[in-house]
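Protocol step 4 of 6: record predicted structures for both targets in the notebook before any analysis. Target 1:
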Amino acid sequence: MSVEEKIPQFMELAIEEAQRASKVGEVPVGAVLINSDGDILARAHNCPISSQDPTAHAEIVAIRRAAKHINNYRLSETTMFVTLEPCIMCAGALVWARIKRLFFGAPDPKSGAFGSIIDVNRLPGINHRIQVQGGILKERCASVLKEFFQERR
C-alpha cells in the first residue's frame, strides 16, 4: 500500500495524539511525521502547558523528535500529518526543517498559516515551499477540538 493510500490511517494516528492531549488538558492537536517509505519518525501532541514551553506545539515536538531520530535537522522527503492547520510559528518550523508535504485536518480561521489568515508558501523570500493539502478527515479533527472547548465552557 502506498503512502497516498495510507493518508487516512496516518491522520487517524494524529487524531489519537490529539485525544491524548485532550486527556491531559492540552489543546487537542496531534501530529505524525513519516519518511518517504511511510515509516513513522515521530508522533506528538500539544504540550505547552505541561512542559511550560510555549513552542511545544504538536508539529514542533514531532519535528524535534524526528530530527533526533534520524540525527539530522533537515527532514527533507518527509510528510507531516496534523489535525489542525499549523500556526505561523509551526509553519516556519516546517519550512526550516524542509518538510516536503503537509496534510492537515481542520482549517484554523484564527491562526492558520497555510491559507486561513496567511499562506506561508506565498511569502516572498521563502526558499522552501511545502506541498499542502487540507481537509483530511476534517470533521473528525474539528470535532475533537469542539468537544474539548465545549467541556471547558
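Target 2:
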Amino acid sequence: MMRELHERLKCLFPLGELTEQRRGPPNELAFVSLPGAYLRPALLHLRDLEGFTHLVLLTAVDWLEEGQFQLTYLLSNRTQARDIGLRVFLPRDGATMASIHDLWPTAATYQRELREMFGIDFPDSPGVNDDFILEGWIDMPPYRRDFDTKRFAAENFSQRPGRTTTDPEQHMKAKLYPGEN
C-alpha cells in the first residue's frame, strides 16, 4: 500500500525514493524525502486526504559532513496501521523551517526542542525562543555534532574525588568472577 501512496504523491510533489522499513500487514513504515517548499502541502494532503491524522514525532539529524540537517516528520494513519516519515534537508548555517503548529499543536513542543538543542529556527512557532530544557544556555546547541561535550564538561565541572574510569570488560570480569584475576 505504501508504494501506491508513493505513486499518488509523486504525481503531486517532487518526492525522492520510497524507503520501506516495514512492509505490512500488520503495520507499515516508510520514509520519503522532499524539498522543504513542498512540506506543508504534502502534510496537508496526507492529513486531510490520506488519513495520516497523527503527528507521531518531529526530529532532526545533524549531517555535519554534508553541512545540513535532516528534519523527519513522522505521521501515522492509525486506521490503516501505516506510518510515513517525510524527510526535509536544510543547510546547517541559519537553519530555518516553517512552523506546522497550526496543523498539529503538539508540533510547537518539538519545534522548541529542536530550536534549543540543534539551533533550527521555526519562526512564528509559539514559545520557540523560550527556554525549554537548558535554562540560561548560551553555548552552541548541544545536539550539534560539532559541540565538544568533553571540553564543555572539563571547562564547567570539576572532577570529583573517587571517580575512576575502568575498562568495562575488565570491570565485569572482576564483578562476575572475583577470584580469577
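Step 5 preliminary note on target 2. Residues 142 and 149 are 8 Å apart (CA to CA). The mean pLDDT is 92.
Proceed to step 6 after PI sign-off.
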